[in-house]
Amino acid sequence: MSLSTLIRWGGLIAVIAAVLLVIADLVVLFSALGQGSGAGLLFRTAISQSAGALLALGLVALYAQQAEGAGYLGLVGFLAAFVSLWLAQEDLLWAALLANLGWVLFGVAAIGARTYPRIALIVLIAGAVLAGVVNLLLLAIDFGARAPGFIVGLGAIADIIFFVGVAWLGISLFTGRVGEPRRLTTS
Question: What are the domain boundaries of the chain?
């Protein structure tokens, strides 16, 4: 199996991870609206753990497609997002913030590389920025053990926007609708 085939299949892994994480965020949103149960949150936790690992694998494929054209900014974004995805599994809020920053840098570098659809990257960046703002709110204001439902709901909506962007990139990669990475020139 060739490397390009593995990278394409990594796009499908990113899509699967994004869909699972959207389902998990819908459970959170449903719970934030007061309709959920403790069992729903347990389901979300179980899904998030395994889908987070799949998302890390999908990120490797998404980055590999554009590694040459993304330059140092893309590499820094990839490394920040990748390492933070593993640290965020431990529910470290600062790791989630670093992951948001990494995904934003990844998206900005991808726009420069012109590998993925621009609108998909804008959705990804917007979702990462919104999720980062919610994470900053949670970090800056001590809500104790339980954050207010509206903040949790906003976080779930921001995550859904972000994961739609991830899924879109994954679909583009899996179907082969990606461009050849543009080399960044230094002049």
Answer: 3-175
